[in-house]
Protein 1
Amino acid sequence: MKILRLAIVIAFSLLASVTIFAQTPPADAGLLANPVYIKNCAKCHGKTAEGRHFGGPSLVSDKAAAASKEDILNIIVNGKGHMPKFAGKLTAEEIETLVRQTQALHKK
């Protein structure tokens, strides 16, 4: 009985650690691997950030590349057009990461 309990505890511990690490991308992970992007942005901007027909615009376009850090930040925080605002829905750190990773798409 003790061995069964121990096995259950170990299994749950492993499951919990896998879940935690699966949701936290490495610091150098790109936008497309970011769980915040996948959950909140990909349905409109696409899994590859190339935009979607009748959805959000491409984040890899020349127009997106020309946007300043402040422009991108303002759009995420306050929304624009059909895009909802994410102020109060995402943390400041999550928003800053999205801005940084969006800009990094154009530096490759």
Note: DSSP finds six helices and no strands in the chain.
Protein 2
Amino acid sequence: MELRANGSCVNAGDGQVKNPSVPSSLGRKRSAVASICFGALLGVVPYAASLLMNPSHRSPYLLAYPAVILSAWIWGLPGAVACASVSGLIIEFFLFQARQIDIAPSTTGWMARVFMFLAGSILVGSLTRSAAQQKERIATASLQQKLALAEAERAAANEREQAAELRLENEVRAHMALDGANAGLWEWDIIRNKTKWSKGFARLHGIEDEDVGTYEVWRPRVHVDDIDGVEKEIQRAISEIGTFYSEYRVELPGSEVRWVGCQGKALVGADGKAASMTGYCGDVTRRKLADLAIIQNEKLAIVGRLSASIAHEVNNPLAAATNLLYLVRLETLSDSQTDHFDQAMQQLERVAQIANQTLRFSRASNRGSHCKPSELIENTLRFLHSKLNFAQVEVKTEIRQDPQFFCWSGEMQQVLTNLINNSIEAMAGSGKIRIRASASVDWKNRARKGVRITVADAGSGMSSQTSRRMREAFFTTKDGTGTGLGMWIVYELMDKHRGKVSVRSSMGPDHRGTLISLFVPMDH
């Protein structure tokens, strides 16, 4: 049997609900009979008490009233009436008449006395029973209130438990989402200098899982050029008890650089000062590189317009100077003077070619033609003849096959010029450059036929990090002398030809140098 909060009982066998405050008809009859019997028995008590007292002190009816009150309190009004009836009859017949007590009144009025005693007993019993029921109701209400409070506390405990489970589930989902989005959470206890961070945060910064979370572990991960700015933002947020946002670079193993965006908020402590910080961070490398690319494209556009303007302005005085030299050469001159004039005209023609090439590159002509690799190499070497002689660099060419292919000849000469210039500067003195041309196929798609031109030098070589960044505009390893546009132009022009650039380089002590292979398809 199960007791419920409302005082009802549930029988485990039949599942029926029984309320003890609502007894059945048979139960009510049995309760009334029991009340009468117990009240009648209690009615004998006043008689016994009167026998023990001094006759002059006997007050039987007064002694009977406590019994009546007790009967009414315990067994209700039926018990009180039974107790009063038995007590009145015993007092009249066994005390007043049978024993002939002196203080007894006349025997002829016993019925009136018993009636008055019963009336008083009924009144007292009713009041007593009403007080008892009121007390029972108060106790029942208090019990029900306690049961309701216990039920409410149990429901609140269940809700708290469910909320805790839901919060834990949400935290797990959030961590999974952050890990998938390459982001992470962090908390920093400023007073104790202890930090907690998620796996995503550690992975973003290249921190091992076994590393203890402290400010000193995080700080060396930030790029040396960015840490001062980040710390200034953090200190400002701590002093103002506000927020901060900063973007910084993280150097990962393998020379990889990652941009991280970090946002945090300072939390105030009991003393009114910042006691802790909490926040999140994410990988913003793609957006940062996109922003940098936009800036560099703007620079390239400015450089292109400036170069075209300079080339256009130089062409006019170059043409005038060439014409003047030609007129002077027609005069009667010695052989040595004629040679000097010829050399001067060749140099001016070279400058004019460079200016025209710059103009063609900036205008991006859409007209191409078929040409042979040998012609491109020969024209380029003729253009760089003076620079090669001055640097004491020997160039060896090998034309294995010389098929015609479609290209923009001026742009392909620009590509070869940039590669040979880089080789000359990489050797920093006398050395050798090997140039090979042949019919070839795309190494990844052998059904695609084309021409392959290879330029190899015995220079200082490049690191793997430099090789990966060769395509970036304005990236240079020539401090103070390079513009960082040479290889960028090579890649851009090769993309226009739908070609491919392959780079191999070595910096070893026994073998060093760089080999760059250009593949251009036959038709594109």
Note: The first strand starts at residue 2 and ends at 3.
